[in-house]
Amino acid sequence: MSSIKVLDGNHSAAEAMRQINPDVVAAYPITPTSYIMEAFSMMVNNGVVETEFVTVESEHAAMSACIGACAAGGRVITATASQGLAFMHEALFNASGMRLPIVLINGNRALGAPLSIHCDHSDCMAERDTGFLQIHAKDAQEMYDLLLQSFLIAEHEEVRTPIMICMDAFQVTHTHQKVIIEDDESVQKFIGKPILKNPLLDIENPVSYGGATRPDFYHEARRSQLEGILKAFTVIPEIGKNFHEAFGRDYSSFGEEYQIEDAEYVIVVLGSTFGTVKKSVDFLREKGEKVGALRLRTFRPFPGAYIREKLAGKKGVAVMDRTSPIGAEGGPLFTEVRSAMYELENHPRIFPFVYGLGSRETNPLHIQDIFEVLISGVSEKREIFPEESFWVNLRG
Question: Does residue 283 share a domain with residue 215?
Fold first, then answer.
């Protein structure tokens, strides 16, 4: 029987890890996800789980330990953020290239310099093309739920790809809320046993990992890796539907829509800011404005067909990037959305916005300003170029 606990994102992640009972956890704690490893290490110490808890000397070593343990046939998890994720960069390509279903928890935190322990999406966006699936939780409940689904997605026979579950630093990692924790027996039934494929420790069927290749095969190896990512388009909603049937919370979609059915103007966003956007939508709806919001949960693979379905026929779209598009024509989320919408014959005007870097405040008034710029920009046909992204709540 499920129970309700008051947990932040870190401790909801630790609860999910307890129920998953992974074979190996490699830990090099970093703010804001340190408490995940602190809480889980206590479970290991007290014999609550059977996990081998490996303390390593760096984040690069943490991912490297995960690679070895996963190749051997184990279920493995690690957690990091910011510079820690950046330090893993080289090893991330190895994990995905060897098609190892590793689970990585990332607490979205700004990259320095200047040093910041606060939230933006510069860390995960810098790693968006490393071959990891990337899914964003909006709150502690989603963090728990997505972790329970993570291995079923990553280990799927047709996917076999590592997965990154992201949550916003402090807004999710440290904010407490009521979280439904399912009973251990139901979770174990849902998760099932690991799906092994070519484990190193199967000495009757020897295999090798990480070998070198020549130009005549590297090209095909990369294409094979892409096949796993593309299969996730089917597997992610399939697992989400199964989770809904088991526990009542629906993850069969790549995102979450709010008041977009009749909306003429829509904001697209990732992560915890969706709640703030919804408040502004409610306020403007009361004033007669036809506005709505769309939150993407899945960023890799990028669900272009889903975007086109939800945004077709709109007059204007504002895309909120929580990372700085230094030298680019808009941030990563903006460029992906604009690219997806290009195939539509009459696509809406799409405007780029940069917000919340290093946890700069973004409140409902700022969201209302975004809608005002969006509506006036469309109606007045203003000439606004992508490199001129609007910076929300920027001083003087």
Answer: no
Supply the pTM of this predicted model. 0.96
Q: What is the pLDDT of residues 135-193, one digit of tens each?
A: 999 999 999 999 999 999 999 999 999 999 999 999 999 999 999 999 999 999 999 99
Which is it for the CA torsion 85, 57, 24, 130, positive or negative? positive
Q: Are residues 62 and 192 in the same domain?
A: yes
- Please check whether residue 237 is in contact with residue 168, taking contact to mean a CB–CB distance below 8 angstroms: no
Give the strands of the sheet with 24-27, arranged side by side. Answer: 52-55, 24-27, 76-80, 103-108, 163-168, 133-136, 298-300
Has residue 396 been placed in a domain?
no
- Picking from 215, 247, 279, the residue at the C-terminal end of a domain is 247
Residues 232 and 102 in one domain: yes
Q: Are 362 and 276 in contact (CB under 8 A)?
A: yes
**Residues 318-354: tens digit of each pLDDT:** 999 999 988 888 999 999 999 999 989 889 999 999 9
Number of structural domains (the chain) is 2
Exposure b/e, 366-391, CB count within 10 A at least 16 = b: bbbebbebbbebbeeeeeeebeebbe
Q: What is the radius of gyration, based on Cα positions, of the chain?
A: 21
DSSP class of 323 = S
CATH number at residue 78: 3.40.50.970
CB count within 10 Å of CB 141 equals 19
